[in-house]
Amino acid sequence: MAAVTTKIPVAIQDGFHVNSNAPSDEYLIPLKVTWTSLGALEGGQVSYPKAEKITVGEQSLSVFTGKFDLTVDFKVSAKAPAGPGVASGKLGYQACNDKMCFPPKSIEINVPYQVQ
Amino acid sequence: MSFLRVSGAIATSLLLGCFLEGCSNGSLLDFAGAGPSTVKAASVKDGKDRHTAPDFTLKDADGKTVHLSDYKGKVVLLDFWATWCGPCRIEIPWFTDMENKRKDKGFEVLGVSMDDNGWEDVKPFLAEMKVNYRVVIGDDPTTQAYGGVDSLPTTFLIDKQGKIAAIHIGLANRKEFEDGVDALLQESGNSPVNAGGNPPADVVAAKQH
User: Fold this and answer.
1) How many domains does chain B have?
2) How many Å apart are CA A10 and CA A31, to the nearest integer?
């Protein structure tokens, strides 16, 4: 079984934050990768960076801001067919600034790969 | 043995934030059928500048049908919110207190939750926050009727005639809400008046003739 680690860069506009993958409250919507198709790959476990702590009102929040990478671990078996492919998924998030919040959204993620 | 290579240009640089679809910059709320209507947070509009708040039919926590028109004759604070909205959670205790102190004066708060999971998330949240006012679950036609509620909280102050007197987009100041509500409570419920309590100039001119 071969293994590879890849990074997905994420950039959040200045003045905004998204909840981390482990928000401080059960009602908050986490940053989360969901894979819809791995193709010939297996795994796809995501490691998230260390979150920041901010306070809005009296509530302490676990968030991400600015630029950061999500690290993804894939594996491929020896029997995987050679050739190109794409691992597809979605990154779900919910963004706020210090005054307002925006509805939960998701962005498509596509990770092209080549099995040789 | 297979060798796995992931292409050098990894995936997509994901840029998140307000410029994506559905985000509001919080500056203007174009209100369908009423023109630009965002007011400076500290004021309520003159009566002649107020437009009718769109009626809606939504369900409350007991499954009862709620129409905004049921509230005519009362001052209403209509609050679009969600359980995942931190600034909303700051305002909700204010609204609970305002409901408590002004309900017998003809004021009511009506919360419109925009939680996709509906009552499953909202009911325990309301219990935890000890919310004492009516809450309904919102829908897209209602938010569209109100100009497209792209950010939360978005709060409307509605006068006794069912007209929108003020709009607050984002976390506002508690005193601004209270001052706005108190100003509307002082208004007559019969005819539109400006914030100073005087009839609009066109009404005065008409009476003089």
Assistant:
1) 1
2) 11
Residues A62-109 pLDDT 10s: 999 999 999 999 999 888 888 999 999 999 999 999 999 999 999 999
Spatial contact of B171 and B81, defined as CB atoms under 8 Å apart: no
Q: Would residue A116 count as lying in a domain?
A: no
Q: Is A82 on the interface with B (CB under 8 A)?
A: yes
User: What domain range includes position A65?
Assistant: 2-109
A101 within some domain: yes
Global ipTM: 0.89
Q: Is residue B201 part of a domain?
A: no
Contact B163, B52 (CB under 8 A): yes
Is B80 in CB contact (< 8 Å) with chain A?
no
Query: Does the beta-carbon distance from A100 to B26 stay under 8 Å?
Result: yes
Which of A21-25, A65-69, A97-101, B191-195 shows the lowest per-residue confidence on average (mean pLDDT)?
B191-195
Quote the domain boundaries for residue B143: 30-187
> pLDDT tens digits, residue range B147-165?
999 999 999 999 999 999 9
Cβ of B2 within 8 Å of Cβ of A77? The answer is yes
What's this model's pTM, rounded to 2 decimal places? Answer: 0.81
Interatomic CA distance for residues A27 and B121, integer angstroms: 8
- Within a domain: residue B196? no
Taking CB atoms and an 8 Å cutoff, what residues of chain B touch A11?
A: 13-16
Token pair recorded at residue A25 = 């409250």
